[in-house]
C-alpha cells in the first residue's frame, strides 16, 4: 500500500500531462489533483509542492498560472498551429459574472477600510489574500477553460469523474472494509454494536458532487455508468453524512425534472427513473447485506434528524444557527453591513473563532469578512449561475444540454452543501474555490457567441 500511495499520484499526473499534449485543458488536471490531494495521495507527489516554504494556496495558484501560460500559448507554440485568442477568457457572461466583479470591488473596499482602521497594511493584505486567491483563481480557471472547445471541456470533466470515482472506491474500502488505505488519522472514531465506525472527511472524494451530477445528467447509461453510480452512492452512504444523501436526492431530481420539462425527453426521464429505482434498490440491499452495522449506525443518525419536530429542531442545524448568530452579533457591534474586514486574531479575537467555525458552514467566514452585503452577493451569484446553467440545459445542442444539467446540479448542490461545510472557503483550496463558477462562466460565454444548432456542438470553439 505504501508503494501505491507513492505511485498513484505520479501516474495520475502523468496521465493528465500526456493528455495535455493533445488538448491543453487537461493540464488543469494538475491543480485539480492538488485540490484532491488527500483522496488521491497527491500530497506524496513532492515535486508539485516545492518550494515547501510556501503554503498550499500559493502552490496551487502557482500551478494555475503555469497551466494558464501553457494553455494560452504564452510559453509554448500553439497546438493547433494558431495562437489562442482568449488569453483572458473572452467577454464576461452577464449578468452572472458581474457578481464576481462586485466581489472583487468589495474585497478592495474592505482592504482599504481595514488599513484605514488599523493602520497595518501587511496584516490586512495577508488576511485579504484568501479572497484574492479565490477571485484570481476564478479568472485563471475561466481563461484556461475558454481556450478549449466544449467537447474538450466535457472530456476533461469525464476524466475528473473517473479519477473521483476511483477515489470513492478507495474511500469505501477504507471506511467500510477498514483496509489500511489512508495513512492519516480519522476525523472521528466511535464504537457501535461492537464495531469501530470511522468518519474520515479528510479523505473523502472532493468531487463526489460533480461525479453524481455527471452520471445522472447523461442521456444513456452502460454497465460502467451503473458501476460508477453504485460506487459513488456507496461512498456517500459510507460517509454517514445526512446532508450528502439529501444533496444526492436533489441532483437526481434535477436531472429528471429538466428532461421532463423538455417534453420530447419524457421517455428518457422515465427510463432514468426506472433505472434509478432499480439501482437504489440494489444499493439498499447491498449496503444492508454487506455493511449491516454501518447501515444501522447511519439509519440511526437519519432517524434522529427525521424524528425532530422540524428541520430547525435538528441539533446540527441549531448548532450552525448559533454560529451564524454569534458571528452576526460580533460584527453588529461595528458594521454588520460590511463585516469586520481583513482583521487578524490579534486585532479581533473573533477572527480566531471564525476560523474554527467555518468548517461547519461557509456563510460564517463570508458574513464575518464582508458582512450581510457579502452574503447577499454570494447568494445572488449562486442564483444567477444556476439560472445560466438552466438556460444551457434548455439548449437544443446535446453537449450544451449535458453541460447545463451537470452544472445546474453542481451549483445547486454546492449551495446546499455550504450550509454544512466550508465549500468555496476551504482554507487549503481558496485558489480553486470558485472553479465550478469559472467553468460555467467560460462555457456560457462560448455558447452565447455560437448559434444554438446541432453544429454548435463541434463549434463552441475559441
Structural features, described:
- The two termini are 43 Å apart.
- It is built from 16 helices and two strands.
- The protein has a two-stranded antiparallel sheet.
- Helix content is 64%, strand content 2%.
- Helix 5 (121-146) packs across helix 16 (435-448).
- Residues 80-85 and 452-462 have low confidence and may be disordered.
- With 462 residues, it is an all-alpha fold.
- It has helices at 2-20, 29-35, 56-71, 96-118, 121-146, 150-175, 208-217, 223-238, 242-261, 266-290, 292-306, 315-332, 350-357, 363-393, 398-417, 435-448, and strands spanning 188-192, 195-199.
- The chain has three domains: 1-84, no CATH class; 91-147 and 314-462, no CATH class; 169-307, no CATH class.
- The protein is globular and about 65 Å long.
What's the overall average pLDDT, rounded? 87
**Strand proportion:** under 5%
Order of helices and strands: HHHHHHEEHHHHHHHHHH
Strand order of the largest sheet: 1-2
Radius of gyration: 22 Å
Helix-strand makeup class: mainly alpha
Low-confidence stretches: 80-85, 452-462
Report the biggest beta sheet as strand number plus sense, adding barrel if it closes: 2 strands, antiparallel
The helical percent reads 55-70%
How many domain regions?
3
Amino acid at each position: 500500500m505504501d508503494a501505491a500511495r507513492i505511485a498513484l499520484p505520479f501516474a495520475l499526473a502523468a496521465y493528465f500531462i500526456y493528455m495535455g499534449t493533445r488538448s491543453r485543458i487537461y493540464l488543469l488536471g494538475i491543480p485539480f489533483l492538488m485540490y484532491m490531494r488527500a483522496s488521491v495521495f497527491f500530497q506524496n507527489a513532492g515535486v508539485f509542492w516545492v518550494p515547501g516554504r510556501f503554503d498550499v494556496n500559493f502552490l496551487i495558484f502557482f500551478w494555475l498560472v503555469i497551466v494558464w501560460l501553457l494553455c494560452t500559448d504564452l510559453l509554448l507554440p500553439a497546438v493547433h498551429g494558431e495562437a489562442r485568442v482568449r488569453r483572458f477568457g473572452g467577454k464576461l457572461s452577464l449578468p452572472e459574472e458581474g457578481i464576481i466583479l462586485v466581489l472583487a470591488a468589495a474585497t478592495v473596499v474592505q482592504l482599504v477600510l481595514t488599513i484605514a482602521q488599523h493602520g497595518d497594511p501587511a496584516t490586512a493584505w495577508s488576511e485579504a489574500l484568501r479572497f484574492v486567491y479565490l477571485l484570481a483563481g476564478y479568472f485563471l480557471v475561466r481563461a484556461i477553460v475558454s481556450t478549449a472547445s466544449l467537447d474538450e471541456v466535457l472530456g476533461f470533466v469525464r476524466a475528473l469523474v473517473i479519477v473521483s470515482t476511483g477515489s470513492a472506491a478507495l474511500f469505501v474500502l477504507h471506511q467500510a472494509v477498514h483496509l489500511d488505505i489512508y495513512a492519516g488519522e480519522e476525523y472521528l472514531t466511535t464504537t457501535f454494536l461492537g464495531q469501530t465506525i470511522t468518519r474520515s472527511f479528510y479523505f473523502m472524494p472532493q468531487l463526489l458532487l460533480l461525479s453524481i451530477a455527471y452520471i445522472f445528467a447523461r442521456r444513456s447509461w452502460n454497465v460502467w455508468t451503473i458501476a460508477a453510480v453504485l460506487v459513488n452512492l456507496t461512498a456517500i452512504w459510507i460517509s454517514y453524512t445526512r446532508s450528502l444523501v439529501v444533496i444526492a436526492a436533489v441532483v437526481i431530481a434535477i436531472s429528471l425534472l429538466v428532461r421532463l420539462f423538455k417534453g420530447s425527453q419524457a421517455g428518457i426521464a422515465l427510463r432514468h427513473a426506472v433505472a434509478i429505482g432499480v439501482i437504489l434498490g440494489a444499493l439498499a440491499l447491498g449496503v444492508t447485506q454487506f455493511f449491516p452495522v454501518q447501515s444501522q449506525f447511519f439509519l440511526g443518525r437519519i432517524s434522529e434528524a427525521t424524528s425532530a419536530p422540524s428541520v430547525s429542531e435538528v441539533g446540527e442545524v441549531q448548532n450552525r444557527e448559533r454560529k451564524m448568530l454569534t458571528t452576526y452579533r460580533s460584527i453588529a457591534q461595528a458594521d454588520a453591513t460590511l463585516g469586520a474586514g481583513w482583521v487578524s486574531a490579534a486585532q479581533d479575537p473573533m477572527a480566531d473563532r471564525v476560523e474554527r467555525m467555518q468548517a461547519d458552514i461557509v456563510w460564517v467566514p463570508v458574513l464575518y469578512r464582508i458582512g450581510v452585503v457579502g452574503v447577499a452577493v454570494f447568494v445572488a451569484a449562486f442564483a444567477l449561475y444556476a439560472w445560466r446553467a438552466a438556460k444551457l440545459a434548455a439548449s437544443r445542442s446535446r453537449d450544451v444540454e449535458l453541460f447545463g444539467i451537470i452544472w445546474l446540479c453542481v451549483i445547486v448542490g454546492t449551495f446546499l452543501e455550504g450550509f454544512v461545510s466550508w465549500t468555496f472557503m476551504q482554507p487549503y483550496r481558496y485558489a480553486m474555490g470558485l472553479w465550478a463558477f469559472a467553468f460555467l462562466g467560460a462555457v456560457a460565454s462560448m455558447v452565447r457567441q455560437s448559434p444554438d444548432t446541432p453544429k454548435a456542438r463541434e463549434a463552441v470553439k475559441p
